[in-house]
Specification:
mainly beta; Thrombin, subunit H; Phage tail protein beta-alpha-beta fold; 5 domains; 18-stranded mixed β-sheet; 3-stranded mixed β-sheet; 7 helices; 26 strands
């Protein structure tokens, strides 16, 4: 909660390999941008820092790249250290002035470091000796010193960020957006003025799922099972959110990375794949498009800062799709799906032809509808820039009115949240028109 009299502003919290470095980067922060994608692209994070004094380029950042994440903690501890809690007060928040009890002394693990906070260390007891669970002062812990770490994370440097809109609606309430965990992707330096740009991705480059080409035959697997096995092998989790789970007698992965192969299977099944916060998420866009709209925007309602819309034609004008297949018995199977308001007499109708292994006319028709959606979905697109809103995320639907041919229901295909070092906050929403009737 914030004071209702406090000017509205946004804050961001940043952790490198579990160490809270927010206070360390605050004097240098130009902007932090979190991009939340609906499908076919991993979420990403970008942090821009001014470096007039050369601190980041020549000192602190180099230590981070060498794995010395403890450089962010002036007391020498790092996340994961088991220390001796000396007994005394612990707090629910790092800024609280009222204690939440006084546990006995005992061993505890440091789980978060918030340098510069009133109570900078969050610790959790490791056995039954003490019941400490909360934020404590530096004077209340002793024992093991972290020193320099050789890299606490498996793979690349892990970065986690949270955006908080403080008193955004002048009601004292704060709204937070957990951006999730990312892996360091690249670092760019430019000047003058000297600027460091740190880019991180939700799908790690150090993981085999992205880089290593594999060859494997998958027999008697469901799509969810393939995704789950790939995720587990690469230290990730998987979520399957579609009602129908395609099953394969045998499917070949030949000299193809796991993520590319899984993406192709999803496309072939008319499903969508999203990579976010260490998870592979597979979902049916039609199901998401059918959900109630989260908000409505009209041309003159002043809820947005600016708008930009497009109307595309090339490659998006299929009126129907036919899926056909000749089964092992030599009998043909086919199914056709049509767009809403299909006019059989029109001379401009174009039909998308797809040859795919299906077992029935019903299955062929269902796949035809999904393929038709896949090719037609980007015909109408809208874009809005809002004052920051943590609630506007990819996958939500919204309505537009008074925009002429762009009126209708849309699904958020990308939400880009940007916080500036001065506390400004904007959210850019890109939406594509929801396809009804097929």
């Amino acid at each position: 909660m914030s004071d209702e009299n406090t000017a509205r502003h946004a804050e961001c919290t940043v952790e490198f390999d579990g160490v809270d470095i927010t206070s360390s980067i605050k004097p240098y922060l130009l902007s932090l941008t979190f991009t939340d994608n609906e499908e076919d692209a991993s979420d990403d994070l970008q942090i821009k820092l001014q470096d007039r004094e050369g601190v980041w380029m020549t000192d602190w950042l180099q230590k981070m790249l060498d794995g010395d994440v403890s450089a962010a903690s002036s007391d020498g501890y790092k996340v994961g250290d088991v220390v001796q809690f000396l007994g005394g007060p612990h707090y629910k928040a790092s800024t609280d002035k009222k204690a939440n009890g006084t546990p006995k002394a005992g061993p505890a693990k440091i789980t978060i470091i918030k340098q510069g906070a009133l109570h900078p260390y969050h610790v959790i007891h490791t056995d039954g000796t003490s019941r400490v669970y909360g934020w404590v002062d530096a004077s209340e812990i002793s024992g093991k010193s972290g020193g320099s770490s050789s890299g606490s994370s498996e793979g690349g440097l892990k970065i986690r960020a949270t955006i908080t809109a403080c008193n955004w609606h002048s009601d004292g309430k704060d709204e937070a957006l957990d951006c999730g965990e990312f892996e360091l992707d690249s670092i760019n330096a430019s000047g003058p003025p000297d600027i460091i740009t740190i880019k991180a991705t939700g799908l790690p480059y150090t993981s085999q799922i992205r880089q290593t080409k594999q060859s494997k035959g998958w027999e008697k697997y469901k799509l969810s099972g393939i995704a789950n096995e790939m995720a587990k092998k690469n230290g990730m989790k998987s979520q399957f959110l579609a009602k129908k789970d395609p099953e394969y007698k045998r499917v070949e992965q030949y000299r193809c990375s796991d993520i590319d192969f899984l993406s192709q299977l999803c496309h072939d099944a008319g499903l969508s794949l999203k990579c976010t916060d260490g998870k592979l998420v597979i979902f049916d866009q039609k199901e998401y498009e059918g959900k109630d709209s989260a908000w409505t925007v009209t041309k003159d309602d002043k809820s947005y800062i600016k708008w930009s819309h497009t109307l595309g034609q090339a490659g998006t004008q299929y009126a129907s799709c036919r899926v056909s297949y000749v089964g092992p018995n030599g009998k043909p199977i086919e199914g056709i799906a049509y767009v809403k308001d299909y006019d059989a007499k029109s001379k401009t109708n174009q039909q998308l032809e797809v040859y795919a292994p299906v077992t029935s006319k019903t299955e062929a028709k269902e796949l035809a509808a999904k393929k038709l959606r896949l090719h037609n979905k980007f015909e109408r697109q809208v874009g809005f820039t809002y004052h920051g809103d943590p609630g506007k995320v990819a996958g939500l639907t919204f309505e537009t009115k008074s925009f002429g041919p762009w009126d209708g229901k849309y699904i958020v295909k990308q939400a880009k949240h940007t916080v500036t070092g001065s506390g400004g906050y904007t959210t850019q929403v890109s939406g594509r028109h929801v396809l009804g009737g097929y």
